[in-house]
Specification:
With 270 residues, the chain is mainly alpha-helical. Helices cover 75% and strands 0% of the residues.
Length: 270
């Protein structure tokens, strides 16, 4: 699956809910395990991409402060519980049957290849060169992909994920005195939320290009059929569950990370 990606029911019991093997198998079938691994790697490598806005101390703290956070396994388990909550066993089984078809498996292979963490740099370079060569004749395929993005809810999920990451980064900047003044957590959250519209546009454009590249070898008919499937109620519910779970983990872990970075910075000043 392409994107990045549900609010799961919180149980009254103190014991964690156990996701069904059926839901976990479905997530693996659609390639969410690869997506989750890519998201974890992105988080680990962020300090290297931010540049001088993060002090060397905070860049070093990032790995220690991020211990146990943004983990692929946690994303998978949270998403599986969400899928169990959102869908009935029959719905999960029906989706598994669909995604086990030859065409669906081929599409999933394309998606996995485009987001495999081990080839991320190569794919990024190839995608940029490929997108640069597109012209107006591709407009109709873009419209199909827009519909797919809507069915999967990837812009909303990607925006929530990006804002959570931005909060963690701003917390790190605050910890390294890179901001003009000190900010409370509530103030940082408000500043991050002000970026939502701009971030959403950026995510939309990025996902559009990424999906266009991932599905470049599909025919128009194959792409349209996949888009129509993603508009079905079961598919929408499935991807909504994944998206809300991804946002749940990202929001929680970004706040934990931000607090840890602030605490570690305060300890250095003692």
């Amino acid at each position: 699956m392409r994107a990045l990606l549900v609010t799961f029911c919180l149980l009254a019991s103190a014991l964690p809910a156990v996701a069904s093997e059926r839901a976990m198998a479905l997530l693996e079938l659609v390639g969410y395990d690869v997506s989750a691994a890519a998201e974890e790697q992105m988080f680990r490598e962020l300090p290297n991409k931010v540049g001088p806005d993060l002090s060397p101390d905070v860049s070093r703290d990032w790995q220690e402060a991020g211990e146990g956070l943004f983990q692929a396994e946690d994303l998978m388990e949270t998403a599986a519980r969400a899928v169990d909550t959102a869908l009935t066993p029959d719905q999960i089984e029906a989706l598994a049957i669909h995604y086990s078809s030859e065409t669906a498996l081929a599409i999933t292979d394309l998606e996995k290849a485009s987001q495999d963490p081990s080839t991320a740099k190569e794919v990024e370079a190839e995608q940029a060169a490929w997108v640069a060569g597109l012209d107006d004749s591709f407009r109709e395929r873009f419209e199909i992909i827009f519909a797919m993005m809507d069915g999967m809810g990837v812009v909303e999920t990607g925006t929530d994920l990006a804002l959570s990451i931005n909060f963690a980064l701003m917390s790190g900047m605050a910890a390294s005195d890179a901001l003009p003044r000190s900010f409370s957590e509530a103030e940082l959250l408000a500043l991050v939320e002000m970026q939502r519209e701009t971030v959403s546009v950026s995510v939309r454009n990025s996902v559009l290009e990424s999906m266009a590249y991932a599905y470049r070898d599909l025919s128009d008919a194959e792409l349209r059929a996949y888009s129509e499937f993603l508009q079905t109620p079961d598919a929408r519910a499935f991807y909504a569950a994944i998206g809300q779970a991804t946002a749940e983990v990202a929001t929680r872990d970004a706040r934990i990370l931000g607090r840890r970075l602030q605490e570690m910075a305060a300890e250095r000043e003692l």
